[in-house]
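Recall the central idea of this unit: under ordinary conditions, the amino acid sequence of a chain determines the structure it adopts. In this exercise we apply that idea directly, starting from the sequence alone.
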Amino acid sequence: MPVTTADIAKLRKMTGAGMMDCKKALEEANCDFDRAQEIIREKGKLVASKRADRTATEGVVVTRIVGAKAYMLCLACETDFVSKNAEFQASANAILEIAVGNDIADLDALLNTKSGAITVADLVAEKSGQTGEKVELPFYARIEAPMVCAYVHTNHKLGAMVGFNKVVPEEIARDVAMQATAMAPVSISREDCPADVVEKERAIGREQARLEGKPEAMLDKIADGKLNKFFSEYTLLEQSFVKDPKKNVAAYIKEKAGDATVVAYKRFSLND
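Accordingly, the structure predicted from this sequence is:
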């Protein structure tokens, strides 16, 4: 059965694949559109497997807030050229819509969620076939709190979501989200800092003190001091507030919003 221009346009609209890829798929499938879509998906997986050793260090971070929930994901690729393509960015937002529509909890669940007859993982593989680059979904998260805010940097390569224990003015929420995006805290506070991070920093502090020739009996005390400095630099609430370094983020929130505090936080950067 001859392949027409209308057939190619129809399959292109269905899959987003290039015109020549659509033509070849339709020819191979004898104009069976279901089979042609499978062929394009298979091609995407083949491209992805061939480029498995490549690094996807470009891409786009997208967010959405629905009521008390905030969602964020990153669709990554190899080049800045592809990441700035309108279709690529639309694909990232389309996957985010699937996540929001199904209220997906985590990345594994999202990858296994179906959109029509195929999974999100298949959609990502298809994008690899369409672009000829390695395309992957390295990050997805959802937070929930009485008030949530999300911020994505202007280069669309990094962003953060923060949740508060009560409603605060939009300006304060945005300031804290921007702080989290820019300063990359490892946790909200010292209390929820991962135990392995704490132990690693304490061990580094002890070793530094030992190399400086400090007495063995003083190592733990010195390490605790260095750990306090780490908390002041790398936990969100204890960090110096970028817009007013004389106070930390906790003090800024207290000054502007009383007993409000951050209770949820997620961040992602393609550059980290």
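The beta strands are 58-66, 69-77, 114-115, 118-119, 136-144, 147-152, 158-164, 240-241, 244-248, 262-269.
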